[in-house]
Predict the structure of Small ribosomal subunit biogenesis GTPase RsgA.
Amino acid sequence: MRRYDKNADEDDIRTRPGRRGSRPRTRIRPKHEDAAEAMILTVDRGRMTCLVDGGTKDERQVVAMKARELGRKGVVVGDVVNVVGDLSGEPDTLARIVRVEERSSVLRRTADDDDPYERIVVANAQQMAIVTALANPEPRPRLIDRCLVAAYDAGMEPLLVLTKADLAPADELLESYAALGIDYVVTRADQLETVGAEAVREHLRGRTTVFIGHSGVGKTTLVNALVPEHRRSTGRVNAVTGRGRHTTVSALALRLPPPPGAKPGSKKALDPGWVIDTPGFRSFGLSHIDPSRVIHAFPDLEPGTEGCPRACSHDEPDCALDAWVADGHADPARLYSLRRLLATREASEGD
Ligand SMILES: Nc1nc2c(ncn2[C@@H]2O[C@H](COP(=O)(O)OP(=O)(O)OP(=O)(O)O)[C@@H](O)[C@H]2O)c(=O)[nH]1
Ligand SMILES: [Zn+2]
């Protein structure tokens, strides 16, 4: 290997003159001072589409792969990375990702509760939109609860998006989430084009929201309305795979159009919010969930856990929350909701 030759690249072995003489110092990584910052929009079999100079007139999409120095570290949609090499974005060029910035949040999933293997699906989202149809298919409250637990565990704010309001009312479902104080928005496809899409966008401005929902809830219809420049095919036969419906393979980050009336170049116009569309989740394994992270989403209950036994699940007889709530420190409905969420960690039929 050339790296340790006498004629090794300066980047690989640097000399540091001074006190200890001029011993070559190995293992100093090249600094990549020419690297550009980029956001990962999608990942397809080891090829990442990155947005370079986002929000400027030089904005372009560059295809890149991981540099060897990243090792096994994964790169996921939403990651902010450093890229080097050919950053022109011309066809057939390939850049290299040399660094992944620290993530502010990660959404993990396990395929099943018994599956210890977890994958990070999305990085740096601040909000999780849980898309549920009010009818056809029927809402699945346990699945919603599992998504909520995953959101709280990931440190994301949940947003309930209730679709197909033309088929059934939302009141009853919203009632069962009232104690959680979750932000929500109700939609119907026949009004998305007029007022509906902008009403949803108002919940998404200035941050990144990952959209999850199982097949048939109308997520594609919704995302297409939110990001009209991006029309993902619905229900079309794929000529290559012959599959009856389109299947989304990777998550995909999409920028919202600027709000109506935003001045070009203004912060509102440049930071209109991002939607990360994800493939339909069949289940949401929760084996990696840590109850102590979930309870952060209940700041009103958190002080009551001081008297809990070590590693309390907060759903066991010795949990201090019962007495604390009985003493009037918090609303019993909140504890009930927390327990309901924590109980979803145990899988049951139909999740
Ligand atoms: N009645 C009614 N039907 C809707 C609404 N939104 C979507 N649909 C229909 O519901 C079906 C599923 O919509 P999609 O947008 O494809 O749902 P999806 O969640 O993306 O599902 P997959 O494509 O399977 O991942 C389609 O036939 C839509 O036309 C709505 O608000 N009201
Ligand atoms: Zn407890």
